[in-house]
Amino acid sequence: MGEAERARLGVGMVGYSFMGAAHSQAWRTAPRFFDLPMQVRMQVVAGRSQTAVAAAADKLGWEDSTTDWRSLLTRDDVQLVDICTPGSTHVEIAVAALEAGKHVLCEKPLANTVAEAEEMAAAAARAAERGVLAMVGFTYRRVPAIQLARRLVADGRIGEVRHVRAQYLQDWLTDPTSPLTWRLDKEQAGSGALGDIGAHVVDLAQFVTGESLVGVSGIMETFVRERPVAASSSGLSAEAGTGTGPVTVDDAALFFGRLSGGGLASFEATRFAAGRKNAIRLELNGSKGSLAFDFEDMNLLHFYDDTEESTTAGFRRIVVTEPDHPYTGAWWPPGHGLGYEHGFTHQVVDLVEDLAAGRQPTPSFADGLAVQRVLDAVERSSEKGSGWVTLV
Ligand code: SOE
């Protein structure tokens, strides 16, 4: 498509730390590797400190910077607001942006509470009537092997889903002297491992199966309840200041649930799995076969076809880098794998294509709200001694 025919998509991003950097590389890279139907402009980034946000703009490739995120809402050169800030700020920024007629991409989890997520989903539904669209950033959906897994499930290759086994394992908090960053503060993060990483595996389980959780039972724990306060932080790391403060979120959450198709699902989210850096493990067992994935080996999908002759049947290791695999044709020759950042890039590609077509991008804010309801149900279950909590 020629330059003149492509509508302009000016992006204003709020936040520029870990997620902001990941989103920036995606906005920068997507138009260079994919033929996008809109002209993406990295217009402006907003942050709290003038010097820091100006330096971030320079480093990450934004044309302008500001300390006032509200100024994005009145700028004619901004058509989309990308929210990369802690969960406590999502509702205010997203609702204001949608009401100002700006499309929104919002980092996960959608919000810190169900009430906030409901407000955001309602604002998104109203905005959609005016052609203003919103998406929540569950990026791991855009990993090629995950897309392939969903396709195989939808094509009936594993039959009826009996089990989903989902784990998100990290270890960046095993050191008890690791300081209190915002992710350990309920006011800012809403919850701990549950919302930060458990939200991803809830979304993945529902996305890959095409089903939803109808009830859950959970248990949560905070292993280290007091930590040094942070003098400064960047992404997941921080410098300790003087004194200590309470950890107000969970360090780990375990839960299980029933899927709408009748299958059973189990989940584990922890930042205390020593040696597991960013292991997202998803295994599905169906009436005709199984699928297994681990993000620490993200270019592979394991497929077991139970309809094959038993003497030669076995897990097949699919290297998901062929030109016909989802997204991979735009990148490198087969076998030259992709990494963490590509999920963010694919998210931009899909979002821009949907915006250009006037289509609702997925996951929508309604999908984000559905995940939020699961997180809330797990917390309520844990509070009442792991009792069953019904959803829907
Ligand atoms: C920290 O646990 C974190 O950065 C999450 O917040 C992200 O969503 C995940 O992609 C990586 O880990």
TrEMBL record:
Residue span, Gfo/Idh/MocA-like oxidoreductase N-terminal domain: 10-136
Keywords: NAD, Oxidoreductase
One example GO MF annotation: glucose-6-phosphate 3-dehydrogenase activity
Annotated ranges, domain GFO/IDH/MocA-like oxidoreductase: 147-291
EC assignment: 1.1.1.361
Pfam families the UniProt entry points to: GFO_IDH_MocA, GFO_IDH_MocA_C3
Gene3D superfamilies according to UniProt: Dihydrodipicolinate Reductase, domain 2, NAD(P)-binding Rossmann-like Domain
Keyword NAD: yes
Record-given protein name: Glucose-6-phosphate 3-dehydrogenase
Lineage start: Bacteria, Bacillati, Actinomycetota, Actinomycetes, Micrococcales
